[in-house]
Write a structure and sequence with these properties.
- The protein is α/β, with parallel strands linked by helices.
- It contains 9 helices and 6 strands; from the N terminus they run H-H-E-H-E-H-E-H-E-H-E-H-E-H-H.
- It is 49% helix and 13% strand.
Length: 233
């Protein structure tokens, strides 16, 4: 009798757990649906944020031009080049750094969106221009549209022309895995918002401190550690 009662409790508990999972899944889906209802309107609004995916300094060189033309638009660079390199790129172009922020927690393309989405949402971004390279597509574009779109953020993509052999190769298996976890995180992120502990404004970068450490700039930038640090002495 006790064994039958134990089996009954086990089955009953399992049913409750499955029902709870279904309810949570439906609630999260409804929240995503509600968020995406405003995407059409967001697409009609002007771009309010330039979002740069790290991986090539040419993307940061390109966004300095945009910053020069649009000094009031916020810029978020997700794990880009070393900080001094970015500072000097903006200085060289006489572009404002007041609206430039660096998120330096990401270690992968998925992380770029994982850590940056909460920041963009806190900024109340509605229309983002994603800046990356053609070799990063379509994976980065789809991931951005899924995750940022699930939070009501419209995404346009602008690609920067690269020179030489690209470091990354887009494989369909990799794309499929990243899209799968992006869809799952789009649901989970409706209730969970991670924070990046390494997030600073470009104006806060301490070049003297950086010059006491090792760093390097991609050769395409025309910058190097020696010239940057000599200017600080």
């Amino acid at each position: 009798m006790n064994w039958q009662r134990l089996q009954f409790k086990h089955k009953f508990g399992l049913k409750i757990l499955l029902l709870s999972i279904v309810v949570v899944f439906i609630v999260l889906l409804s929240r995503v649906f509600h968020q995406t209802q405003g995407l059409s309107m967001a697409s009609q609004q002007p771009v309010d944020t330039f979002f740069v995916l790290g991986g090539s300094i040419r993307r940061e060189m390109y966004v300095t031009q945009l910053a020069k033309q649009n000094p009031d638009i916020r810029i978020l660079i997700s794990t880009g080049s070393d900080d001094p390199c970015i500072v000097k790129l903006f200085e060289r172009e006489h572009a404002s750094t007041q609206q430039v922020w660096l998120e330096k927690c990401a270690k992968s393309t998925f992380d770029n969106f994982f850590y940056s989405q909460p920041i963009l949402s806190q900024w109340h971004a509605h229309h983002v221009k994603l800046i990356t390279s053609g070799t990063h597509l379509p994976r980065a574009k789809w991931m951005a549209q899924i995750l940022l779109g699930s939070h009501g953020i419209w995404v346009d993509v602008e690609t920067v022309k690269e020179t030489g052999v690209p470091a990354n190769r887009e494989l369909w298996l990799k794309t499929g895995l990243d899209l799968t976890r992006t869809v799952l995180w789009a649901l989970a992120s409706q209730v969970i918002q991670p924070s990046c502990s390494n997030f600073i404004q470009l104006q806060e970068v301490n070049l003297k401190k950086w010059c006491q450490e090792k760093f390097s700039c991609e050769y395409q930038s025309g910058l190097n550690r020696k010239s940057i640090c000599e200017a600080q002495n």
